[in-house]
Design goal:
The structure is a single chain. Helices cover about 50% and strands about 10% of the residues. With about 230 residues, it is of the alpha/beta class. It has a four-stranded parallel beta sheet with strand order 5-4-6-7, with helices on both faces. Helix 1 packs across helix 10, helix 5 packs across helix 10 and helix 8 runs antiparallel to helix 9.
Amino acid sequence: MILEKIVGILGGMGPEATVDFFAKLVRLTPANKDQDHLRIIIDNNPKIPDRTETTLTKNETLLPMLVETGENLEKAGADFIVIPCNTAHYFYDDLTKHLSVPVLHMIREVTDAVKVSLPSCKRVGLLATTGTVTSKLYQKECEKVGMNVVIPDAKGQDRIMEAILEIKAGSSKTSARRTILKEANQLLEQHKAEALILGCTDIPLVIKSNDFSVPVFDSNMVLAQAAVKFARP
């Protein structure tokens, strides 16, 4: 009998990105019938404060809510936890001190995926929230494996953040998609990025891998792949 681990999803940041992650997790699981799928526990907690605002203002209200939600998943029986939100990983070290089960690190999983897939890659473009960019979550991890991260200029980053907020608001996503495509293409053309990281889990809701000629790494997809691998012996 295969002893699988129960997946705990610390979600709600944002809710639609959590749905997207769950769907990818299900699709990636090898299964011929319902019983072949993984057991998954989701705490979709959209009441967790805005991650970018918190990282920029050093607001102390977010971490306790992350801890509470993580502990809920532990109590419900999760064997490990995943967080389908890049910016929330700013609090990863502090969060894991309060939890007894493993928490997969999305940023490291994505960085490793780029390096394994493209071992000679030296320059990768990043599209992410301002919180993720300014806290250098990807820059620090990529530097460890010899990759430089290129990001939009200040005005471009403001436009990316506005587009992400549009997606979260559930309004027409056409303008958000147009903005993100424009900024991404500038990273590819002006900064010669060899690959592109979709480092906000809301961005894959409007952008797909086949939108670009270079390899694209969807952070939600990479985390889902890692979760399936970790859960199955």
